[in-house]
Amino acid sequence: MLTDFDLRVRGALTREIAARGYAPSNAELAALLTCSAADVERGLRALHNAHALLLHPNTTRPWAVPPFALSPGSCWVEIGERGWWANCLYCGLGIAAAVGADADISTRLGGEREPVVVHVRSGEVLERALLFHLSTPPRHWWDNVIHACASFQPFRTEREVDDWCVRHALPKGAVVPLPQMWAFAREWYGDYVRAPWRKRSADEIAGVFQRHGFTSPFWSLA
């Protein structure tokens, strides 16, 4: 069970990453929250255990604070002169939604050779023909969230998804048009910087999935 203080830690950390492009130290975060570094570390451990962020193993140093990656990920998100790493294109879209501005998201098709840039302009994604493939189902995302994100990749056609799954011996999961994924990212991450942070319940998550047409067994949390 996350406390109000834990939620304040997550919210402050998210806002600072959005503003700086990197995470503040725990001491800096403690100063912002007018508490001790030990309090911040306890909050970070609670958030890690609740799958609200990911810490580096055996430390209280944030590794991923979705949608932000704190080490080089597969995507680079540029908004004006600022930039952030993301561990997958969905998280890159999440950064654009959270910051609330036009963005250029650089990544590669299938995580392989061919580069692609996804543009968000005036609240819409321009690459409307692209597909987004999620190999790992939501109920297993936090088994290894870094791997799960790495298994989420953009493609031009579903045939390319099929070939990629065979080539890499990875399961075929959900194939979603990029505009649909963008709409989902906007609802999920749109208030992450502007509003007090809170963790959704399982029922709330299922409701978001339902609203965006994610109703196949792939999306089941059970």
Which strand-content bin applies to the residues?
Answer: 15-25%
Order of helices and strands: HHHEEEEEHEEEEHEHEHH
Termini separation comes to 20 Å
Which outline best applies?
A: globular
Number of helices in the DSSP assignment: 8
Structural account:
It contains eight helices and eleven strands. It has helices at residues 4-20, 26-33, 37-49, 89-99, 145-150, 158-168, 178-189, 202-211, and strands at 54-55, 62-65, 68-69, 75-79, 82-86, 103-108, 115-121, 124-125, 131-134, 152-155, 174-177. Strands 5-4-6-7-8 form a five-stranded antiparallel β-sheet. The protein has a three-stranded antiparallel β-sheet with strand order 1-2-3. A three-stranded antiparallel β-sheet has the order 10-9-11. A hairpin with a 2-residue loop joins strand 4 and strand 5. Helix 1 crosses helix 3 and helix 2 packs across helix 3. The model has no long low-confidence stretch (mean pLDDT 97).
Secondary-structure map:
Elements: H1 4-20, H2 26-33, H3 37-49, E1 54-55, E2 62-65, E3 68-69, E4 75-79, E5 82-86, H4 89-99, E6 103-108, E7 115-121, E8 124-125, E9 131-134, H5 145-150, E10 152-155, H6 158-168, E11 174-177, H7 178-189, H8 202-211
Antiparallel strand pairs: 1-2, 2-3, 4-5, 4-6, 6-7, 7-8, 9-10, 9-11
